[in-house]
Amino acid sequence: xxxxxxxxxQLRRGVLEYCVLAVLRDGERYGFELVKAxxxxxxxxxxxxxxxxLLSRLRRSGAVETTWRxxxxxxxxxYYRLTDRGEQMLEQFTDQWAQFRDAVDDLLGKDxxx
Amino acid sequence: MTTSSVDPxxxxxxxxxxxxGRQLPRDSRDELVAQLEEHLRDAAPAGSSREDVLAAIxxxxxxxxxxxxxxxxxxxxxxxxxxxxxxxxxxxxxxxxIVPVIGWLxxxxxxxTSRVWSFRxxxxxxxxxxxxxxxxxxxxxxxASVQTCEGNSTVNRCTGSATSAGAWILLAAAVLLPLITxxxxxxxxxxxx
Lengths: 114, 193
Known about the structure:
The structure holds 2 protein chains of 2 kinds.
Chain A: H1 7-25, E1 29-30, H2 31-39, H3 51-60, E2 64-69, E3 77-82, H4 84-113
Antiparallel strand pairs in A: 1-3, 2-3
Helix pairs in contact in A: 1-4
Chain B: H1 8-20, H2 26-43, H3 50-60, H4 63-74, H5 83-98, H6 102-113, H7 119-127, H8 135-152, H9 161-191
Helix pairs in contact in B: 1-2, 1-4, 5-6, 5-9, 8-9
């Protein structure tokens, strides 16, 4: 029952929401645009659809907000936009991530010297 | 939101999401389906080839995976089927035969308190047939008493084929209907293991 999870998917789970916030820093996006921006970076998205539960959660927690905008094709699209709170979360994570990355790099680097 | 021009491949996929997400709160599920529908409209605009639509669906991923992610983000533990569900199926089928009425009622209680089955499946499990296989001995006893009645009459009308054909149909229904329901519930249970 307790099979080991792929380490990449564990890492992804932790950082993906901040990657979404980072993409939205440059301005509002609709779902498909966001997915394309993320999947341009290999290894970030395993299955594209899982981004939507994440977006809903970010909306519920107040990090992003959605607005409806007309689309040239068919019904209006929902656009996701960073809120002030989301911006704060992103800033905080950016610092934490730098520390974390350095710490892990440091340890991995040491191990390889042994 | 109705999209009449939607490719049957897309609506089929969205239907699978809806059905995989039957344990999600209704508004979450509706939102998820709407998001995915919008995504597919952008990923495979009207007039896309069948291959493009299939590729877009493939990249979205399996409905179960997306729903599991939604459950996780909502903090809902994924409902896992266990002994309780198998007891429910067993009792709905034969509970009423072993302990008349009560055995089946316990099965129905377990059915309705489980999170593995949808409302529709629970309704099916309850209505087809209430009592489960209890109707098998009932039909058999009723059929036998009809036979005896006819045998006692001076003129032997036991050959009345209409009566026996009707009895056979009733017997088949009493055996098969609960069995089909139990099979459907069991298939879903195996999926949720």
